[in-house]
Design brief:
- This protein is mainly alpha-helical and about 50 residues long.
- It is built from three helices and no strands.
- The protein is globular.
- The termini are far apart.
């Protein structure tokens, strides 16, 4: 089994849903995802990943 983890700092789910992202849309349709994650502002990588 192979796993790809995609993390986009500071990207809210509503912004992702409105953007034109055919590759991410394809991954969402064919894999596991969540739209319930929360981001922190300002975007700071380490706290956002924990």
């Amino acid at each position: 089994m192979k796993t790809i983890l995609v993390i986009i700092d500071g990207c809210r789910s509503d912004g992702l849903e409105q953007a034109k992202t055919p590759n991410i849309d394809h991954m969402i349709e064919n894999g596991a995802h969540t739209m319930n994650a929360r981001t922190v502002t300002p975007s700071i990588t380490l706290p956002a990943h924990f």
